Amino acid sequence: MAEPFELTLVEQAAAVRRRELSPVELTEHYLRRIERLNDSVGAYLTVTPERALAQARGAEQRVMEGEEAALLGVPVPVKDLTPVRGVRFTSGSAVFAEHVAGEDAYIVTLLRDRAGSVLLGKTNTPEFGLPAYTENRLGPPARTPYDLRLGAGGSSGGAAAAVAAGLAPAAQGSDGGGSIRIPASCCGVVGVKPSRGRVSPAPYGDGSGLAVSGPIARTVRDAALLLDAMAVPAPGDPFSLPPPERSFEQWSLREPGRLRIARWASPDVAGVTVAPEVLAAYERTSELLAGLGHEIVDVPQPLEPGDRDPFTPVWAVMAASMPVPPEREAELMPLTRWLRERGRSVSGLEYTRALAAMQAVGRKHAAAVAPYDAVLTPTLAQLPAPVGALRDDADPEADFAAQLAFTPFTAPWNIAGLPAVSLPVQWTVSGLPVGMMLGAAHAADGPLLALAAQVEAAAATAGLGSARIGYG
Q1: Residues 221, 225, 228: CA angle, nearest 5 degrees
Q2: Has 79 been annotated as catalytic?
Q3: Pairwise CA distance, residues 215 & 227, whole Å
Q4: Catalytic residue among 22, 179, 200, 466
Q5: d(CA 445, CA 199)
Q6: Any catalytic annotation for residue 179?
Q7: Which listed residue (22, 79, 93, 422) is catalytic?
Q8: How far apart are CA 232 and CA 197, in angstroms?
Q9: What per-residue confidence (pLDDT) applies to 79?
Q10: Is the model's pTM score more than 0.90?
């Protein structure tokens, strides 16, 4: 009989509804795994056992009363860039190590109150979610459980590590430049960046439209179920999409039909090369798609070197906007200080112009995607990097450049606001995951999930790989 952590999110939710699996027993099961394994994989910054067990007991009562909320009694942690009232809220920074949130993010109320999930704790994130690795001064770095010498990626590295190591069935992440898809690739799980406007940022928002919350899970169907719980608009959202005509879980169970799929594997960042193992996985995934009956079309990289330059001042202003007391600025990570210094030098007029220029780049990317049903690219240019390999405290500018070379494919989808998903459809001979990314036009999240589920199933049948528990 399978251990509870081996069950998918969908399976756990169904077992709870059938009263075959107790929310309290399930929560206790995960808390024991977290206590045993978290120091090794660095998945959680804060664990909330008392709160989790109280929520599990409440969920058990709701089950006994016949309620059937989608995630009732199933644990789902949230990233520590997302506030939960009464829980430590660090944003990955030692400056806020003792800070406790005074209110819930809207997505927390959706997951906990409407969907009925149980909060195990807050997952690890780098300072303010800025880097593509998850290393901070609060706890151990997040690591991919397939090789503990290697990082989990960032900035949702803790969430991806938790799912890959069986410390949660699924997790909430957020993605402003690849922060869901990067760790999903490093950790061999599914990561979905929804369309802009699909998931409400309430009561927050940076104005750029870059960042969006999304699911990290072991299967596409699990991710779709979690996205259904997240994708509820709030009044006043600056970007908002109407609900899809069917649930995302239903989309994940549909055949996508024969599609026209573009592909490119050339980065738009000058001097960046793609690892041979990544290119080999890209070719095998293309063959898999063709074998499923899809038309594969080679398309030139739609962006040119320099096109995405406006992203950097916008990102820097986001870093500078974090309310750090002036007397504590020196406690920040070197990369954070460097970005904040750059952000403070950007005038209001320059920021407005950078936003406009960035939107023009987004339209250019979206126009290249529009003639096709989907696009295939690698998720990352490289295999998972060793802990500390991207980080350069002595030279933050080199640190930022190393991250860009590691992740050249992800940010354009944020700039354009288009949906994209990283799938663990390939594994190296040494057992490391290689993520491939599928993207689509704005608001085409459902059809994209249908295609992703088809590819996931075909890859598993072909023995190429799928998500698996990597530790413990």
Answers
A1: 135
A2: yes
A3: 6
A4: 179
A5: 12
A6: yes
A7: 79
A8: 10
A9: 98
A10: yes
